[in-house]
Amino acid sequence: AQSVTQLDSQVPVFEEAPVELRCNYSSSVSVYLFWYVQYPNQGLQLLLKYLSGSTLVKGINGFEAEFNKSQTSFHLRKPSVHISDTAEYFCAVNTNFGNEKLTFGTGTRLTIIP
Amino acid sequence: KAGVTQTPRYLIKTRGQQVTLSCSPISGHRSVSWYQQTPGQGLQFLFEYFSETQRNKGNFPGRFSGRQFSNSRSEMNVSTLELGDSALYLCASSLAGIGTDTQYFGPGTRLTVL
């Protein structure tokens, strides 16, 4: 069975500072990995995804993530955050065969401090 | 292109009643998936429909059911409502499914069960 752990439920960061949101997964098979963002009162929006190839994935709004197979991690990073990045961030995993479904982490609420 | 729309946006029901939620996907998308979001359990996958057939299913009781029409619009039904069914219900659409495709989420329907 696949699972996703987001270790930090809340992360406060000063504006223009860097941020890393952590995500670890467990799966016995190959995985596809995703980061989604949910702004207040909205649905989720894809930030980036890892399917194969380069382990460093670049997404929208200046975010990037690195797939680390040995550590089963897919941490999200941004070198300089803005007020507009205030949102909840979800890591998700999908196995590439079998009963496909997106399994989400519990989310990390990113708060930007002016 | 219009995004994913969900109706109604808010619903209040009482225990024992049933409810039907609607989701209209992005034009051309054949996959519609449904998720339940609660503060305690986070985002949980309910099921996915593709070309009018349920393709994948999460771990929810049979009270939760769905269907998809020939125009790809989907409905989700919950019978015999329980207090624990109070949640934000999100649907997402994609071209080919939840394997590798980007999921485009609607704003959700907030269901309150009294």
How would you sum up this structure in a few lines?
The complex is a heterodimer of chains A (114) and B (114). By secondary structure, chain A is mostly beta strands. Chain A has strands at 3-5, 10-14, 19-21, 24-26, 31-38, 44-50, 56-58, 64-68, 73-78, 87-95, 103-104, 108-113.
List its traits.
heterodimer, A: 114 residues, mainly beta, 6-stranded mixed beta sheet, 4-stranded antiparallel beta sheet, B: 114 residues, 7-stranded mixed beta sheet, 11 strands
Q: Indicate the overall shape of chain A.
A: globular
Summed over residues and divided by their number, the pLDDT of chain B gives a mean of 94
Classify the helix fraction of chain A into a percent range. Answer: under 10%
Give the biggest beta sheet of chain B: 7 strands, mixed
User: Strand portion of chain B, in percent?
Assistant: over 45%
Q: What are the segments of chain B in which pLDDT stays under 50 over at least 5 consecutive residues?
A: none
Radius of gyration of chain A: 14 Å
Low-confidence stretches of chain A: none
User: Structural class of the helices, strands and pairings of chain A?
Assistant: mainly beta
Order of SSEs of chain B, N→C?
EEEEEEEEEEE
Largest sheet of chain A: 6 strands, mixed
**Form type of chain B:** globular
